[in-house]
Amino acid sequence: MKAFSIDSENDITVFASLKEAEASGRQADLFCTQKELGALAQKWPGGRLIEIWNSLPGVKPVQKFTSRDLGLRRIWAAIQHLKPVGDTPLRSARSRGAKSHVHRANEARRPGKAALVIAMLQSSKGATLAQIMQATGWQAHTVRGFVSGHLKKKLGLTVRSFKRDGDRVYSLKG
Questions:
Q1: 100 & 15 share domain
Q2: What angle do CA 102, 113, 157 make, to 5 degrees?
Q3: What is the edge-to-edge ordering of all strands in the sheet holding 3-6?
Q4: Whether the predicted model's global pTM rises above the 0.70 cut
């Protein structure tokens, strides 16, 4: 039976067995069942469930759960597909010295194109439509949709759009 550990930074580690999890020496809470996860979560603030969920790979981030039970069920279901890694563990920068064979749920989440575009828009000159297209490989309509839908509506950022020398330029208001 797989075993899981969760540390204070909400990194979930998957082990092939409880014995392997205990032998890892990690300072983390161990659990093997949804019920055990629920018992651990009883002492957590509700916000921690949201942080855990939003750090899992391949999930749609949420701002709240309608209940603690729903959050636990969704987290449990999401971590079931994770598998322990064999002799070549995937490790985050924090765990490079670790010898346990684990897979961290947070590792699949790497800064992506959204973070790249935001960084470009935060520069003092902003970024042209052409620069964003080149950096991301997106088409012009995708960039415009991302700025309008994701940055403005979803994230609530204030994006300035103007023309400089005939080129469309986007920047974040600071």
A1: yes
A2: 115
A3: 29-31, 3-6, 12-15, 103-104
A4: no
